[in-house]
Structures are given as C-alpha cells and as structure tokens.
Amino acid sequence: MKTKVIAGIVTFNPNIKRLKENVNAISPQVEKILVVDNGSENIKLIDQLKCDKIIVFANKMNIGIAAALNQVMEYAYQNAYNWVITLDQDSITPDKFIDDSSTHFNTPNVAQIVPIIYDENVKVYYDLGTKIDTAHFQEVKKSITSASITNVTIWKEIGKFDSDLFIDYVDYDYCMKINLNGYKILRNNKRVLFHELGSSEMRRFLFFKIRVSNHSSFRKYYIARNIVIFIKRYKHNSRPFAELLRLLKVILLTIFYEKNKLNKLKKISKGILDGMKS
Questions:
Q1: pLDDT for 168-180, tens place per residue?
Q2: 214 by DSSP, 3-state: which?
Q3: What is the DSSP string of 148-202?
Q4: Domain(s) of CATH 3.90.550.10: residues in the chain
Q5: What percent of the chain lies above the pLDDT cut of 70?
Q6: DSSP state of 55
Q7: Is CATH 3.90.550.10 correct for 5-195?
Q8: 87 membership: H or E segment, kind and range
C-alpha cells in the first residue's frame, strides 16, 4: 500500500510572499496541502491559494496552534493519510525532505521525523539538546512543530496536541508524549529547515553572544505559563531545573535587552501565576 503524506500549514496574518514560498517548497513533496487559518485579517489573500492540491480551512478566530494542528491531523486521519508534515507559515521545507525521510516510514515505533533547524534571523543551527553527529538519522528527544513529519496512527493513539497550551510548548509537550509512550523521534541530519524563530537577534553579553527572541507580550505570557505547566506535568520525566533556568533567562533577557519591558514583565508574572494555578 502506498504511503500517503499531506502537509498542514497553520497561518495567522502571514506574509503572503513568504507563505507562497513555503507552499512552493512543499508542494512537489506531498499529495495535498491543508492550510488552517486562525482568523487572519488577510484571509482573502490566503483563500486565493486554493486549487486542486491546496485546501483552506478558515477558523473565525485564533483558536491556537495546537487546536489548528489537531484539525490538520484529524483531516489526515479521516482521509487515510499516513504521515503529516506540519509547517509554520514562514518555514521553507528542505528539498526532497519527504523522499529522503521516507526510508523510515515503515520503521517500527517512529512517531516523528524532523530536520535540523536553522534560524535565518541569527544564522544559528539548533540541536535542541542533542548534539548533531555524522549519522544520517539520529534519535532525539524533542523537536519543534515546523517540518516535523508526524505519524498519524501514533498521534491518534497517544493523544492530540494539547489545545490548552495554545501556542508555546505545544511541540515539546507532544514530544514528551512520544517519549513516555515508548516511541521515537528521528532527526534527518542531512536536511535543514530554514526557519524564523520569532524576531530573534544576537546581542553581546560580556564576551558572549546570546539570542534575544523579542517575543510579544502575548507570547511572553504563554511562554512563562506553559513552562510552569510543563514542569508540573513532567516533573518526574524531564529536567525541571533546566526549565526553571530557561524561565529565568526569559525574564533576564526581557529586562536587559527588550523593548516594552514593563508590560512584558507583567505578562510573564501573570503567566507564572496562571501556570501555578493550572
């Protein structure tokens, strides 16, 4: 039986030129593209992408990335697709990524196949905690949502993306589900995703260069809240101290390097409190 692959792109007020580049990069690699829009103001421009290969679901409001991803996955499940490559609106999929990764489509217990991440804003590769080695495929513990090729059957079995998280840590939470249920994430070290992680920029601290995300107050709230939720949820299965350090880093970088500090710090504080009450 032929393995069927569909692409799912979640959009929210996207740059149309970049979105078209995204679509053009993935289109030759998959059978269909499902665009799920979360209440964009430029939905009419997004609708113009519709064709035999591209479907657009238009949500009336922003229901969050997790809920939109679940729409993509449910469509794939109902229409007998085996794998879904999920994409952010600004991601450019590596050439022949699907074809190259398909060698593991029938490997037992593989829940996701992911590329290496390259942040175009700051010109940095991200290994997400597992140092990149010379192997073509390498087992890793976590990945980001964009350009993750996800097994539909395993998604149905282990549980959906958590819509309560809304945006941040949706991917890391799902990766923990994969790990705790005995499944694997493989990274294709020969393929690189060109991605824009927020509005990142490199700043200097003493003799070091550090990445400053410049996320909005809205995002700061969910980052802080969901780090706390993640720590509480997986305190016996993850590294809570490392997550606390990440939260501290978010606070310190906001104080020293970002604009609109007061409002962002208020949102971070609210996020921490809401995460503790969750």
A1: 999 999 999 999 9
A2: coil
A3: EEEEHHHHHHH----GGG-STTHHHHHHHHHHHTT-EEEEEEEEEEEE--TT-EE
A4: 5-195
A5: 99
A6: E
A7: yes
A8: strand 83-88
